[in-house]
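Fold this sequence, please.
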Amino acid sequence: MSMPAPAPDPCPPGTPAGPGGPAKGPAGGGTDGGADGATGTAQAPPAPEIGSAEWDLLTDDVRWSAETFRLLGCDPGHGPLSLDRLPDRLDAADRPMLRRMMTDALVHGRCAVGTVQVRRPGGGHGTVEYAGEPVLGADGTVTALRMLLRPAGQDGGTTPV
């Protein structure tokens, strides 16, 4: 029996990743061997809603998955937010944490994780966990920032992406 390859770790070993570090464990729909009492068949948990985003510092290209637009409450018709506008989606209390993460990634070349409150259209809020990592060029300088996002506590715990 072969096991599926693990998902790539957004923060490789030995890279500071903040409190708790990135989540570890199997990726996607495995089961714990339990059975559904009604049918006797194993039930896989729902697939996690994970968004991805990348900001290319060399070309100013920004790419967001559809999930990222939903998680951050942004209209895809307006396009993704630039890095300098990203904190605008957060509660004021969480903006300094996101800015520190960006500084860690873009200036110091380190991964970072955290949980933030996102302001939604209409005044609502949502809690989103993120993991950010720098992309290094051949000369070792940061050329892009990648982020994974998901609703907080989606895996039943509070471990970030």
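DSSP finds two helices and five strands in the chain. The beta strands are 51-56, 62-64, 112-119, 125-136, 142-151.
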